[in-house]
Amino acid sequence: MEKETHSSARVLKIAACLLAAAFAQTTLTNVSLRLGCINWLLLVTVYVSFMRDPVQALLTGTAAGLLQDVASASPLGVSGMGEVLAAYLAYWVSSRVYAEGWSVRFLTVAGGSVISKLTSFALYRLLGIGLLPLAGVRSVGLDIALAMAANLLLSVPFFIALDRLFKPGLRQRARRAEAMRGMRRRRWKKMV
Question: How many CB atoms lie within 10 A of CB 107?
Fold first, then answer.
């Protein structure tokens, strides 16, 4: 019973984060073109994928992609494919490597940004839809580089905020572990 409420609370937190990220992505794109480079939905997707639940990661990537397609008035599924591939990459990395270190998180965010953008551009090309703000290969490369840099810079404070949201008992667990170490020392002294 307790595990079920924990899981439903996590799903509600993820849904709230996705809606907040979709709101930030649509409003900040209208404010400034530089702020429009940040893919808030991708950052939420990558963070959720670090939780090592493959179904939750792929569902979050799908929901993030659909929200992004609806908000940007692009064909449904174009951004969704990129987000799902980024979620799969982040899950794959987190299941094989200790993903709590910042270097792994940086590389995963960079890889997710590149995969998401390249997939979207490839699907636009495959469907024969023109890229609205871009013209030429040089602009596509510049757009990928700007998106990757913006996502990397924002990922540090954003992941710290999400860590506090999703792991509220981290300090309590650390205190318990310290208390257990103290108990072991006292037992050892009694035995000696």
Answer: 14
